[in-house]
Amino acid sequence: MFLCCWLALVALIPMTSGTNPGVEVKLTEKGLEYGRQLGMASIQQKLKTIKVPDISGSQEVSPIGKVKYSLSNMQIVDVGLPKSALDLVPGTGVRLSIGNAFIQLHGNWRVKYIKIIKDSGSFDLNVNDLTITTSIAIKSDETGRPVVSSVSCAATVGSASIKFHGGASWLYNLFKNFIDKALRNALQKQICPLVADAVSDLNPQLKTLNVVAKVDQYAEIEYSMVSSPTVSSSSIDFSLKGEFYNIGKHQEPPFSPAAFSLPPQVNNMLYIGVSVFTTNSAAFVYNTAGALSLYITDDMIPQGSPIRLNTRTFGAFIPQIARRFPGLMMKLLVKTVKSPVITFQPNNVTVQATGTVTAYAIQANTTLSPLFVLNLETSVSVQLFVSEMRLAGAVTLNKMDLTLGTSYVGEFQVKSLNSILQMVLKVVVIPKVNVQLAKGYPLPTLGKMKLVNTQLQVLKDYMLIGTDVQFIG
Predict the structure, then answer these.
(1) What is the pTM of this model?
(2) What pLDDT digit, counting tens, does each position of 239-251 carry?
(3) Residue 46 CB-density burial (10 A; 0-12 exposed, 13-18 middle, 19+ buried)
(4) What domains, with CATH codes, occur in the chain?
(5) Sign of the CA dihedral 182, 186, 191, 196?
(6) What residues contact 231, with CB distance under 8 A and at least 6 apart?
(7) Cβ–Cβ contacts within 10 Å for residue 371, how many?
(8) Of 288, 335, 309, 314, nearest to 429 (Cα)?
(9) How far is CA 242 from each of CA 225, 226, 256, 292, 423, rounded to the nearest angstrom?
(10) Is the separation of the CB atoms in 230 and 236 below 8 Å?
């Protein structure tokens, strides 16, 4: 896992101003702690790759004179990072501090003195009280995607102990101190570049962010940032556009998002607030695309239903249909005439839809003969839920009102069709709507991110998703 994967959640690219968000996200201290754990594992693996070059030199050692030495084949045996902290610097950024770390190293030594005497063996070096502090910056690259970098780093190597194996034991203490110093300096030069590499290794993962996420053949949703993240001492709050668009055509709806803010909750790692603007922008997109229409034929009605889509059934309520079009099957076209309106109230989501129902008789040559057009006003309740990384839903019918728009068969009582049309809505239209809603639309995500312990609450004008996060793979 890469360093501080949670950083991807605080930098979802291009920043513009003057626009209220459709989606608000809060990363809590619990989320930061999870990010710290992932980050430390990544840094630990990086530090294990330290390559210490061979070291050689000479030193005057009393009483034997100049001693030439070399250290070679040095390998990191173990790295321990027992203590670390990831801190938010309000209004600035992120600081990672590592303390009480240690590095264990094994290598070979060789010496030559009095011109002809040689000796050699191996050694183990333990470096303790290692401290590392780095500051991490989050910016946007030329494609508008987030990029992170280590803007400052300090590493200090504390105490060290070296143990020699082989050779004449009386030599050990003679050159122990200067070899100790040489090794500590070599290690210290390696640490910060490797930490910077660990931070940079996150950038390929950041490119997996679904900044523009495809929903289906009609729509995509944009999660670009509309303002810079707000960094406090306990959380990072940031604002995403959260707006649906027709694929290939970014047309703004005739309404704008209202400002909203998330409550100060801390039980979960992450809180995602999705405003009613976001869902209404979806309704606008699908209505504009002409996707909110459905032809209904008799084969879509359950076989056991006594009500059939034919002129005989409808003729029982409108006799002139049976007389003018005897023995014909029928087809209904249900479609919206304007974008549905979605409202969020505490524990309640309602959709008001205005549409028409056009009835046709199907002639023997498949020609459609219009019979009537009804104006349809419906209200449905929506149950929302999170399924994996998608927000999904299901609707149930609240009420339905019919009025006559146009009749091609003369006057008739519209109320007589209430039971037929209500049955059609319940057994055909709403099940098809629910099949689509169950597919859901994608939430902001990074790579193989998984939401766990997720709860969803509907509040005034927005829904609040509280969740923990896991990165898998």
Answers:
(1) 0.84
(2) 889 999 999 888 8
(3) buried
(4) 33-206 (3.15.10.10), 212-471 (3.15.20.10)
(5) positive
(6) 88, 89, 90, 91, 92, 93, 94
(7) 25
(8) 335
(9) 9, 10, 12, 21, 36
(10) yes
